[in-house]
């Protein structure tokens, strides 16, 4: 079987590693595979895998400009998409597996028109909510339900994919609804029941929806002792760790800063994934580190932490929670999020979302020493299990 994956990035960040893991699983099981991705220099690491770069950095920049000015995420990159579809025609895949279609690199109208015209079998993994909204990737934080009927007057236009000009959320919603519906054979994969419930309330509800929890490399994410504590003078501290690719507000940065004010000198907040500006503005009792795309280094940091806290209310899976758990570190997450599903499949503490309850849970971990090692609980999230479940979906398309 010939499988074409399409994603904004390749080999780095959560979705980038997912596509390379699936590529390896497919090839190891006798399939042919190609990964097509947005041409973001310095932001891809495909290794020796077969790939197609969609467009150039100039195309990405022009798409980003169109988004900033006209709220046009997904509706630019026409030339790049036309050239890409010529390569798809040459490859003639049996299955096209879509991932993130936002990211300033592809024109969704041209892509789906081609898929419909050629009657290609499609698998689409929804990593967030962008496919069924008029603008945003998440809406929980502002309590917006417009996506259930028809988006308009979007309260999140200034957030990714940010538009500094006009609000076209209504037009985008209606165009997406027309574009994304009508595929004859498409299966939607989602990484949590949290997201599945929302997909079934959206205009994508008529497609079959399958929950397939993401997988991680347990050969890398495992207890990995290092000199991390010594390097940063944390030997006598209770380390409270947070990790994110980008620390936007929904990830809970303000929550960690409140914790730093509340917890005593025996605690140390460590945040990974911050920008230079964010690091420079941190108080002295918070250690800020830039993002690392080296999983083994991240595993060392997870291992050296005492607890891992994810206070985000808008996660469709919670990859960092599974990674921390696999490294033997106790996770604390909020209820009514996909992160809670990860903890329920493994182990950890789930709090309601009240700040006082979160603080109490952290203190109890230190004072009562209740944080057991967790690596065995994380075995469910192996990338081998993940790959086999997705391959089974491909096989159904034969």
UniProtKB/TrEMBL annotation:
A Pfam family it matches? Glyco_transf_4
In this protein, which residues make up the domain named Glycosyltransferase subfamily 4-like N-terminal? 13-218
Q: Which UniProt keywords apply?
A: Glycosyltransferase, Transferase
InterPro entries listed in its UniProt record? Glyco_trans_1, Glyco_trans_4-like_N
Q: Name the top EC class.
A: transferase
GO term, biological process aspect, one: lipopolysaccharide biosynthetic process
Q: Which domain of life is it from?
A: Bacteria
Asked if the Swiss-Prot or TrEMBL record annotates the protein with the keyword Transferase, the reply is yes
Domain spans labelled Glycosyl transferase family: 228-373
> According to the UniProt entry, what is the EC number of this protein?
2.4.-.-
Q: Which GO terms describe its molecular function?
A: glycosyltransferase activity
* PANTHER family the record matches: GLYCOSYLTRANSFERASE WBBK-RELATED
In its UniProt entry, what is this protein called? Answer: Glycosyltransferase
